[in-house]
Amino acid sequence: MTSASVKGRSGPRRAQEKGPPGAAARDRAAWFLVLPSLLPILILSVGPLLYGIALAFTDAQSGRTRSTQWIGTLNFQDLLHDTLFWDSFRIGLIWAFGVTVPQFLLALGLALLLNQKLRMRWLARALAIIPWAMPEVVVGIMWRLVYNPDAGILNETIRDLGLGDGRDWLTGLATALPAVILVGIWAGMPQTTVALLAGLQNTPHELHEAAALDGAGAWRRFRTVTWPAIKPIALAITALNFIWNFNSFALVYVLTSGGPGGRTRLPMLFAYEEAFRYGQFGYAAAMGCVMVAVISVILACYLVGRIKGGEER
Description:
313 residues; 14 helices
């Protein structure tokens, strides 16, 4: 076999391995189109995240004249023995579970109701998403007025019904956290309702009719037809809601600012106070790293569950 024949055979193979002549140009064009959407993510999300992680290993504090020194893991060592932070972490978990679980159950019931053929259903659906359309600051101010001890609608209703004189819900040690959790459920329920309602509307109606013809009741139809159809959506929205609620800041800050006595001081509020009230930027960044690690674990568990669920199917 001559060298010319070897070159003649290897040439097309190399060209085939490299792909069509215009593939490289198309790849460059695709990256050029994607780049404008990637730059804001890199600049506004990835960049600050990396800077915050680096800041956690320094003694950065407020003040122009203060020099920043690299102190290694000292902030994390102090964080391990900070009972106030771990107490806020416990409150954050109570808040996240206390909001996410009732939020999902109530949203599921509302989505099932709005999926029925009701009169004025379009109006009910529009009213159901109003809390979602309101900014968290506006929601917090509105509920502060509801909980107002002197002229709030809640205490006025209690007095009108002869059930007592009412109480100061947001400053009571025993009532502050439940009152804030109630607001969180009300504010976040529409988002979950919309997601579940979309899943219910995509469920084939023929499956329900077939189950009804087989003699299945409402509960059995829900368990065998409805729930398997909306389960992926339910798991996804629940995981996202838990992460969102654990990272809550604005709503609780407007309602209680973390009080009374730290009863509603969520981890984000605690980190905010350390950074912007006491000027401990490095220590606050270490708190942020711990919260990012917790959220990453939650996301990893969710993704593993999704992968296993896909393999089983």
